Amino acid sequence: MSIKPKNDALSRTSLSVAFTVGLYGAAFGAAGVTAGFSILQTCLLSLLLFSGASQFAVVGIMGAGGSAISAIATATLLGFRNALYGLQLAPILKVTGLKRILSAQITIDESTAVSTMQENNDDKVRGFYLTGIGVYVFWNLFTYLGALGASAIGDPAVWGLDAAVPAAFCGLVWPRLKDKKQFLISALAIFMALSLTPISAAGVPIIATVLLAIIFGWKK
Amino acid sequence: MSTIWIAVIGSSITAFLNKYIGHSVPEKWLDRPRFKRINTLVPIVLLSALVGVQTFATKKELVIDQRFAGVAVALIALKFKAPFPVVVASAAITSAAIYNLF
């Protein structure tokens, strides 16, 4: 693929985002296997679901003994922001049929972020595809490597993998906490989930916190 | 079919529907201020709850163990704007050190 000089900076941005984000895939691959998923199941989540936070939620909830329903519901709610990204991207990409299906699959935080940072329409389109496809390739590659690595390990606690998963969630939620109110809501969610843990089925304490989002988001 | 397979396939289908719907519905359907406010908070509450449960819960019991130390170090790393792989690795190293030493 030839790269025009004016797009050099964009290509570099897209690829560095793709590679860095792709590396997290190793943490997901390890988390999947640690949670009791096979290498195939872990890799399929990266290939098919392809949305980091939702994937970590599925393996986290199933690994803790939660039901498939609560894992699916939590992952779906976490993935809803991708629908909002699609809304912003559709008028820019203007694609139909198979191209729309493929574009939808790579509609994630990173591809949307790089696309919306660009000034002209051509760069927005290019940024979306370069980043989306780049993340897809690296994320899946590193998922496989992480899953392979973790399956070679016996007790996950010996390698600290039991702390790596909640740390990964910290890394995912941290950039979203932008003011005091959001920190408070985050703390309340932790408190609520822990309070419910001894008295409800696994997975329920997580999804129940959506109530907090509705209560605090209802009024400005 | 095992419950893990149901979770893998089910969540993959709904994830794709989420993505595809955004590309396909008229903008005004989802473009509502209240809806957007709630949707901004949804990842915050769900991910925070996951942090809490994954750090302190063992089945239905709440415990403080090596995971807590690992997550505390991760939070410090985040406070200092460390990149994601450093955050995860520092938590793993801390937790493993405590688990193996004590």
Return the string of H and E elements of chain A: HHHHHHHHHHH
β-strand percent of chain A reads under 5%
Global outline of chain A? globular
Summarize the amount of helix of chain B as a percent range. over 70%
Number of domains of chain A: 2
Fraction of residues in β-strands of chain B: under 5%
* Main sheet attributes: strand count, strand direction, barrel closure of chain B: 2 strands, antiparallel
Low-confidence sequence ranges of chain B:
none
Can you give the mean pLDDT of chain A?
Answer: 91
Determine the most extensive contact between two protein chains: A-B, 99 and 76 residues
The first-to-last residue Cα distance of chain A is 48 Å
Enumerate how many helices of chain A there are, as a single number. 11
Question: Low-confidence parts of chain A lasting 5 or more residues at pLDDT below 50?
Answer: none
Main attributes?
heterodimer; A: 220 residues; mainly alpha; 2 domains; B: 102 residues; 5 helices; extended
Structure explained in plain terms:
The complex is a heterodimer of chains A (220) and B (102). Chain A has helices at residues 8-34, 39-49, 52-63, 68-93, 97-105, 109-117, 121-151, 161-173, 180-196, 204-207, 210-218. Chain A has 220 residues and is mainly alpha-helical. Chain B has 2 domains: 1-29; 30-101, no CATH class. Helices cover 80% and strands 4% of the residues of chain B. Chain B has 5 helices and 2 strands, in the order αααββαα. Chain B has helices spanning 3-24, 27-30, 33-56, 66-79, 84-101; strands spanning 57-58, 61-62.
In short:
Chain A has helices spanning 8-34, 39-49, 52-63, 68-93, 97-105, 109-117, 121-151, 161-173, 180-196, 204-207, 210-218. Chain A is mainly alpha-helical and 220 residues long. Chain B contains five helices and two strands; from the N terminus they run αααββαα.
